[in-house]
């Protein structure tokens, strides 16, 4: 009897420990001061504004380059919470030919590092995507800055 209880406890522990979500490219939280200060090393390449799709979503988005690394910055970002939200860069609002940027979505001022191989001339839609239900919460279409 003790061995069955021990075996059950071991199996349950294994199941619960393996269910932890591994974050992919978690965002860096940035402050209002960091946004306001700016930086001569930062070159803003693209900007856009989030618009609602299936859920209220708002805020501004920028893609900038700093020391040869492209970053995706969310400013005053807000969306509803949902299961399995992701940040995608895609060719359209239907998540066609997307690249998953992160499996972590938070409200506020955030930055994500972009993969070097991303083609922003094609994948210019930033989506807040619910992978579980295949639903777009909101989109920001990137435009080249002047």
Provide a descriptive summary of the structure in words.
The protein is globular and about 70 Å long. The longest helix is centred in the first third of the chain and has 17 residues, at 2-18. Strands 1, 2, 3, 4, 5, 6, 7, 8, 9 and 10 form a ten-stranded antiparallel beta sheet that branches. The protein has two helices and ten strands, in the order H-E-H-E-E-E-E-E-E-E-E-E. It has one domain (22-144). Helix content is 16%, strand content 45%. By secondary structure, it is an alpha+beta fold. The model is unreliable at 9-20 (pLDDT under 50).
**What is the first-to-last residue Cα distance?**
73 Å
Q: In terms of quaternary structure, what is this?
A: single chain
Low-confidence segments? 9-20
Our count of domains comes out at: 1
Class based on secondary structure composition and strand pairing = alpha+beta
Quote the average pLDDT: 85
What would the principal axes of the Cα set say about the shape? Answer: globular
Strand composition percent:
35-45%
User: What is the count of DSSP helices, taking H or I runs of 4+ residues?
Assistant: 2
How would you characterize the largest beta sheet?
10 strands, antiparallel
Radius of gyration: 19 Å
